[in-house]
Amino acid sequence: MLKNRSGSGRNPEIVEQERRRSESNDGWLERAFKDLGQPDLKKTTLLVLAGGKDQLATRVRIAQSALRNDRLPSYWSDCFLLKIKDDGLSGAKVFHVPLIQPARPFATERNGVVEEDLAFLSNKDEWPNLALLAFPVDQRDVVSKLKRFMIDRNSLDALEHILKWLAYAWGVSRTPNPVHEDMGFPSACMLEVAFSAAQLDLTPGLASKVSCPEAIWSTACYWQKYYEQSRGAVPLGRYVIGHTYDIDDGRPKRGK
Q: I need a labelling partner for 222 at 20 to 30 A (CA). Which of 8, 67, 172, 245 fits?
């Protein structure tokens, strides 16, 4: 469970940005990036939270309900480090640790980390939920620490986390919810280790090895006072929620 919030109320810099009619995720992210003021990459690192709706994504989102006070499924099923150039999102890359690993190169050679073109996230039907978050730390520093994470499994063995989450998602034997076992989601743990090595605590309420997309979302939304005091700047963000589950909790479905 996440520790108590350090701020008072929700971070006003995390703002909903509706998707335009027929707008792809690429277009939405480009607008969000511009709306954030095209952050200075010497002072900022960007993350993308994404929420899918297939069976695997559903299992991941439900697992993270344990981190929410309302116990509703998380909006998010994966998270990514977004590496961009100074001139915008053209040619941007994203890094994550997918549960379903590609055959090559062998996962042990890169601690499960996979680099994708930003177009990997372009399908709004596959990824209906998106958030673009900006944290106050130099992108170059975080990327360099990510490269170290890829060759050093001693800092955190992401492959162990992959196997635990897959076993749960696939319903293998009696595999418990990894969140209850303090076993963080692989992509989130990757981000935690890289950011921590760059001297920014991405989720002050949790240890690196137990982080999840929901934890990153929660701290961006509610721990702004911590970041303001420790870094002199708060996280910025834009998000869109295109998919929720039809659960009657007595509140409006679009409540965030």
A: 245
